[in-house]
Design brief:
alpha+beta; Butyryl-Coa Dehydrogenase, subunit A, domain 1; Butyryl-CoA Dehydrogenase, subunit A, domain 2; 3 domains; four-stranded mixed sheet; four-stranded antiparallel sheet; globular; binds flavin-adenine dinucleotide
């Protein structure tokens, strides 16, 4: 068992910290307040190579392995303060580039992957619907065959990057109820019959845009199918395994940064003549944060390693997603308490971290759904 990064991974991680702390820090308070997606910083991330991290070199990506990508994203999370923008990038990479790289036809890859990798196009995915979120395979959006094309009808909600996306991976029902009746389609934004709703205002991750997507008589050619007709649930499940890791990797860096801030504050902040860190309640809170961070980190690394080594890591990625998201919320909640009243004040940039963190126990399957998955693999539930 080997627990250290390679020299190259250390170099990648520190390069990411340097880039993120230089470019993804300024102006976050105002962008968060106004809910603005910073396209210029999206472009800066692309220039750094973030959007193309896992895309094979053949399509202009960096072709990194998953553990190296985790190292980079962890460094980004540590250095950046704009968690919303980072989420937009990881959602684009995991939920659009990921399935395209794995299941796309040569033509789909040639026409979209280079643009997604260099950030000139933005990807989004729509599976959630107003009446099916956790019950993901209960989706009602339909795709009917018509003269060799497919016609999509329905609506999607909570689509990350929706307001700015150039292409959508849409999951629709092409067959009977449940798992086998679903197909994924690649639908460019300008397709007639696809309409993007207004931006949805969120509690956190406010620099990551989100909207509904409406499909009314939305006609796409047979070549828009990603994978096979009826294989949408397989595409989705494999994508989820990757997304649970990629989207959560920056949180490891964020938690480390917050923990370090809390340690400094606990040493410097005095209540009376005593540093608050001298109180066991504060010191133990810090120890608990450290335990939460390090156990979540190990689960995430192991899941990424297992996916690389064995090609699949459903149980491990569910455990990692559950551990990282719950640790992230707990650590942010603890940080507010350690900072006292200052933790509640916008300028101290702790309260925003808590608002951002809360989303992680909801997206890519809620914490309850991860537990269902883990218990289900034991034949329970
Ligand atoms: C920031 C953010 C970004 C998102 N981005 C996208 C995106 O890009 N594309 C997309 O398609 N979707 C996206 N989503 C949607 C997300 O995947 C859903 O919100 C999530 O799957 C939960 O579905 P729901 O909101 O309908 O909640 P519901 O399914 O209504 O769940 C409500 C509550 O009931 C619990 N619950 C439901 N079923 C069960 C069960 N069987 N067992 C135990 N508990 C259960 C849930 O855990 C939750 O606590 C995003 C959501 C957020 C918050």
């Amino acid at each position: 068992m080997e627990f250290s990064w390679t020299e190259e991974q250390v170099r990648l991680r520190s390069g990411a910290v340097e880039f993120a702390s230089r470019r993804l820090v300024d102006g976050v308070i105002e962008r968060d307040r106004q809910g603005v997606f910073p396209r210029d910083l999206w472009d800066a991330c692309a220039e750094f190579g973030l959007q193309g991290l896992l895309v094979p070199a053949e399509w202009n990506g960096a072709g990194q392995d998953l553990l190296s990508a985790v190292a980079v994203l962890e460094g980004i999370g540590y250095g950046a303060l704009d968690n919303g923008l980072v989420f937009s990038v990881t959602a684009h990479a995991a939920s659009c580039e990921g399935p395209l790289s794995a299941y796309g036809s040569p033509e789909q890859k040639d026409s979209w992957l280079p643009r997604l990798a260099d950030g000139s196009a933005i990807g989004a995915t729509g599976i959630t619907e107003p009446d099916s979120g956790s019950d993901v395979f209960g989706l009602a959006t339909s795709a009917e065959e018509a003269g060799g094309d497919w016609v999509l009808e329905g609506s999607k909600t909570f689509v990350t990057n929706g307001p700015v996306a150039d292409v959508f991976l849409i999951y629709a029902r092409t067959g009977g109820p449940g798992f086998t009746g679903i197909t994924s389609f690649l639908v460019p934004r300008e397709t007639a019959g696809l309409a993007v709703g207004p931006s949805m205002e969120k509690m956190g991750l406010r620099t990551s845009p989100m909207s509904q997507v409406f499909l009314e008589g939305c006609r796409v050619p047979a070549t828009a199918v990603v994978g096979e007709v009826g294989s949408g649930a397989i595409v989705f499940n494999q994508t989820m395994d990757l997304e649970r890791l990629l989207v959560m990797a920056p949180a490891i860096g964020v938690m480390e940064r917050i923990l370090e801030r809390c340690v400094v504050h606990s040493r410097e902040r005095k209540a009376g003549s005593v540093a608050i860190g001298k109180h066991q309640s504060i010191a133990h809170r810090i120890a608990d944060m450290e335990l939460q961070l390090e156990s979540a980190r190990l689960l995430l690394y192991r899941a990424a390693w297992q996916r690389m080594a064995r090609g699949s890591a459903t149980r491990e990625s569910a455990l990692a997603k559950l551990a990282v998201s719950e640790a992230y919320v707990a650590i942010c909640r603890a940080a507010v308490q350690i900072f006292g009243g200052y933790g509640y004040i916008v300028d101290y940039q702790i309260e925003r971290e808590l608002r951002d963190a809360l989303a992680t126990t909801l997206y890519v399957g809620t914490s309850e759904i991860q537990k269902n998955l883990i218990a289900g693999l034991r034949g329970l539930g």
